[in-house]
Each structure stands twice: as structure tokens, then as C-alpha cells.
Amino acid sequence: MEKSADSAYLIHELIRNRWSPRSFTDMMPSQSQLLSLFEAARWAPSCYNDQPWFFIVATKENPKEYEKMLSCLVEQNRIWARQAPVLVISVARITFSLNGKPNAHAFHDLGMSIQNIALQATGMGLAIHPMAGFSKKCTRETYNIPEGYDPVTALAIGFPGDPNTLPAALREKEMEPRQRKSLKDFIFACTWGENFISE
Ligand SMILES: Cc1cc2nc3c(=O)[nH]c(=O)nc-3n(C[C@H](O)[C@H](O)[C@H](O)COP(=O)(O)O)c2cc1C
Fold it and tell me: Is 168 helix (H, G, I), strand (E, B) or coil?
């Protein structure tokens, strides 16, 4: 299934076609496909080039490890995310490695690296679905994440599958068109709230 963005202006087809599916096929991405995703993450920009992103990966090739990560997700996400052959938890280092000072842009930079993963995945026929719905406490304890590092998002990764495999409520959501605010609602000029776009 495809869920292309109904964009008002021209955008790159990778951006148009990226979306966050809940249904995935059983097909396991190859190791080199997975590494291409993280290679894409690696080339994201970051404040002082500090590269504060870290990723913990679990695949269905190791069912015990996969279940371990799945158990850190909230139940509403577990329902569908268990279809994905690969799960990832992203972690941000919240201080600069250079001087140990707080890095106020760590989450920004981690997000940039995840968008790189998302677009790279789209270009390869894969998709990712980011999730805030997981337990940071569970993740911290399960993976011995040290102080100064924050679990940020979980990702379900795989090839988009058949929405009919989902429970009815999720299937409906899966089929809904993708919605966004209009440009005039978030681009301002001169002062807060004043439209940049004149129509
Ligand atoms: C930081 C973040 C957290 C999210 N958390 C969840 C989540 O816990 N469960 C879920 O089903 N979707 C989650 N999503 C997916 C969003 O709902 C989705 O990106 C949004 O509805 C737009 O849809 P699209 O990605 O298909 O364009 C999350 C997305 C982001 C970026």
C-alpha cells in the first residue's frame, strides 16, 4: 500500500511517499539494507558534529532479543509493531562528548538522523514507524543505558504489508489519508502569527 502526501507544492518523491505503516510483511531486510539505514543516519547534520545518536537493534532472527525489546513497548503499539521484523530503540547522548556540557540540540539531531533513516528506507521500499509509546524505564533497565543518555523513540522497521492483517480499528487508521496543517498555519514573518504567505 502507498500513502503519498497530497502536497500543496512540489516536494521530493521520497518525502511524498514516506509514511508510518502499522502492517508489515514477514520479509526480513538484509543486513546490508539495515546497515544502509544506519549509514543514512550517520550522515545527518548535528550540533558541533557531535553525532549524539545511538541505536539498539533487535530483529526476529533472534526471537529472544526481539521479544525483549517488544516488551518495552506500550500495549497499543505492541499490537501492530509485532508484525515488524526489526525493532529499534533510539537513544540520545544529552551532553556534548567534547566538553560534557548539556547538549540542548541532542533530540533535534537524533530526530534528523531518524528522518534520514526514514527517507533512506522509503527509497529502498522499506518503511519505519516511530513510536513514543514505550517505557523509558524498561529500556534503561533492560539495556543498561548509562546516565547522560536518554531513550527517545522506538522504531518499527520492515516492508509495508497488508492492512487487512490488522484489527479493525487499526486497519481503519491505516487506510486514512495523511493529514497536515496548511503552510499558513506555521510560517510567520515580521512577528509571531503574521502570515509569510500572502494570498
Ligand atoms: C516522535 C514520534 C512519536 C510517535 N509515536 C507513535 C506511537 O507511539 N504510536 C504510533 O502508532 N505512532 C506514533 N508516531 C507516528 C505518528 O503518529 C505519525 O508519524 C503521524 O501520524 C503522521 O503520519 P505519517 O508518518 O504516516 O505521515 C510517532 C511519530 C513520531 C515522530
Answer: helix
- pLDDT, one tens digit per residue, over 32-59 is 999 999 999 999 999 999 999 999 999 9
* 6 CA → ligand 1 middle, Å: 18
Question: CA 17, CA 3: separation in Å to the nearest integer?
Answer: 6
Contacts of 195 (CB under 8 A, 6+ apart): 184, 187, 188, 189
What are the sequence ranges of the domains in the chain? 20-177
Please check whether the domain covering 20-177 is classified as CATH 3.40.50.720.
Answer: no
Binding pocket residue ranges, ligand 1, CB within 6 Å: 19-20, 77, 130-133, 153, 178
Residue 2 has pLDDT above 90, yes or no: no
